Amino acid sequence: MKKLKYFLTNILLMIFLVSCSLPGLGGNVKNEVVIASGNNLERQVLAEYSAQMIEHYTDLKTTQINNLGSSTLIFRAFENGDINVSAAMYTGTSLTGELAMDPITDPKKAMDVVQKEYKKRFNRTWFNSYGFDNTYAFMVTKDFAKKHDLKKVSDLEKLEKEQGLSVGVDMSWIDRPGDGYKAFKEKYQFSFDNMYPMEIGLVYSALNSNNMDVVLGYSTDGRINAYDLVILEDDKELFPAYDCSAVVDDEILKTYPELKDVFKKMENTIDNDTMQLLNRKASEELTETNIIVENFLKEHNYFEGDSK
Fold it and tell me: Taking the model in full, what pTM does it have?
C-alpha cells in the first residue's frame, strides 16, 4: 500500500510538471541558449562554466535557470521547452530515473547507454564526461586512514570486528534500492553495528570533529578538500557510475552548430580533485560562482585548441 501511494504521488507530480511550465521559466527557447543550473553549488558552477565558454567562443548570450532542485525537474523543464541545456546530468541518476533502467557500475557502459537512449528517446545530445563522477563514497580523516592503514572499503571489515566503528550515513541511503545499505551488506558481506543516519550536509563536519570514524558522502564535495579527508576505494563496485556531463537539445545544436565544438572543449577538463576544489571555493570560501569559473578559465586559457 505504501509503495502504491508513493507511485501514484510521483505519477501525479509528473503529470503536473508536463502540463505546465515551471514557475519563473520562460516559454519557447528555440533561438535562445537557456541553461538549467540547479539549487546546488556544483550544478551552479558548471552552469557558469557552460555560459562563460559559450559567450567566449560565440556571439550568443545565455540565460541561467537556478531554481531547479532535482534532475527530475530539469528533465521536465526540457520536456516543457523551458530550457535547452543542462550543465550537469549524472549517468547513474538518469539511468534509474527518466530512463527507468537498472544501475550500471561500469562507467563506459553507463555512458554509452545514456548517450544512445537520450538521442533515441529525447533527441538530446549527452556529451562525454567533464572528467569526474559524483558518486557516494565512504571516507575517513587522513589521520584515521594512516593509523589503521585504510585504503579501500573492504579494509573496514577487520576494524569493525576488532573495535567497532561509528558510521554516519545519508538518511536516504539506508533504504535506497540498488546501492543502499542492503546492497552494501550483500556486496561486502559485513555490516555496521553503530550506524547513524543524518543529513548529508552534516556528515563531513561530524567526521572532521571526530564524532564519527567513517562517513558516507559525495565524492566531489568541497569539504573533502577543505577537511583533508580520504575517500576509500569502492573495491567491490557497489556504487554505480555517476559521471557528469552537459546535455543539450538537438534543436538548439541545429540552430547554432558552433555550440557542439564549445561543449566538446569542456570534455575531460575537470577531474574529481578539481571539482572538489571548485566546490570548496563556492561552499567554504563563499566565492561567487562567476568569479570561480572566470579564474579557472583564465588559468587554463579557456581550453584553447582543445576542441576534439
Answer: 0.84
